[in-house]
User: What shape does this take?
Amino acid sequence: MSRMTCELLLRLDGSLLEGPCWDPRDERLLWVDIPNRTVYAMSWAGGNVTTVTTLEDVSAVLPLADAGEVLACRSGLTTSADPGRIQLPIESHRSWARTNDAACDPAGRLWVGTMADDASPGTGTLYRVEPDWSCHAVVGDLTISNGLGWGPDGDLMYLIDSATRALDVFDYDIATGAVDARRTLVDTSGWPGLPDGLAIDIEGAIWVAFYGGSAVRRFAPDGHLLATVEVPTENPTSCAFAGPGLDQLVITTARASDRSSGGDLYVLRPGTTGLPHRPFAG
Assistant: This one.
């Protein structure tokens, strides 16, 4: 098992940075600060950072197929072109719940999970949003619906429920978006912290950020630990492959419990490349 280190990419002193995503159209890195209601975009070549402010907490940002971005806000989905209006409500009737992590499958469907503000057990749901913006509840009884991703062949879907400390895998039907045969690939309770966001590389290995664990860990497709990235702050939240060659791993972080660090971006060259992010086809 190898050990790696990362370096500071961008100091922001934010609160809860999440959802890093590579946008190849303009070679930008996208991410959010959930409670600060801010969507960030950074030019990879120049390092220039721009922001969009939302009216609600914003948990994820993903490119749209045509132009712009889709945003997962507290009560549903909207776009960067109209961030003040929820276009697809998701559990908006539950004032105590919000969206959490989101990702797009190989066919351009958008998947987004929910959770209660107090992380009440079993109150979260994972939804599939079709390109026509129809929304379907798929996986229920979740607590903190978190990291999402698909294997290189698109026939496996990964999901983290942070509270259970499990990295689960499903059989996945790209043609229909159906999931089946859920099973736990990794029980992460043997490592410090809670599993949070994830990224998948071209070898099918899964990189998982451990909130409270000061690390990102790489797991093989069969679940055994391959590598650990040491992160110099308490709360890594997610990771994504970025850069024109998708050969750099960007790590988002949240403010540490003693507020001494966190809320910044880190980066390393992991020696492998990632899978492209698919835009939402809506």
